[in-house]
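Exercise: predict the fold of this chain.
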Amino acid sequence: MKRLVVLVALVVLVAVAASTALGRNARPDSTAACTKGAVAARIGGKSVCLRAGTACKATYNSIYKKHGFTCIAGHLRKTPTAKPPAPTPVPPYSPPTGTVGTANTTVTVGLFDASNGQGWIVLSQTTIPSGMVTFVITNNCFGSCSFDLQGIKAGTHFNTRDQSETWTVALAPGVYRYHCDFSPTGMKGSFTVTP
C-alpha cells in the first residue's frame, strides 16, 4: 500500500513539474486555443478567446478590430463586414439615333474563319461619314458566317464560300456594333459614324 501511495505522489510531482516547465517555456506571444466560434488573441499580454458578448475594455479596441470585433458598452460585438458595392448594370446596346447626314459611302466587308474555330470580320473602313452606307459583304468562311449590324440589319446566313450580299442603310453619327450570328463573341467589332 505504501508503494502505491509513493507511486501516486511521484506521478503528481512529475505532472506538476511538467506543467510548470511548459508554462515557463511557452512563448509569450502565443495565443489561447479557442473553441469554435471564438478567435484567439493576445490582449494586455494575456492569451484570450474573443467572442461576441464577452467583457472587453475600450483601450484595446485597436486589437479587437484586428480580429473583427468592437468593444461597445463593455462587451464585444462583431464588426459588420462591408458589403461589396452592387455591380452597375450595363444598359443594353441600342444603335445611335438622330439626324442622318448626306454622304454616300460603300464599305466592303470580308467574313473569315479558321480551323481552330476563331474567325474575324474585316471592314474596308472603320470611320464612316453619316449618311447612306452600302455594305458589300463577301463570305470567305468554310463554315457558316453572317454579318449583322446590331439593331439595324440582320444579314444573310451564308453556308458556302464566295456567297455575297449588298445592302444599304441610313446611319446617324455614333458607334455601331456588328457581329456574326455563328460566333457572336469571337467575330465582332464596331465602327464609328462621324457627323
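Check your answer against the key: The CA atoms of residues 101 and 131 lie 4 Å apart.
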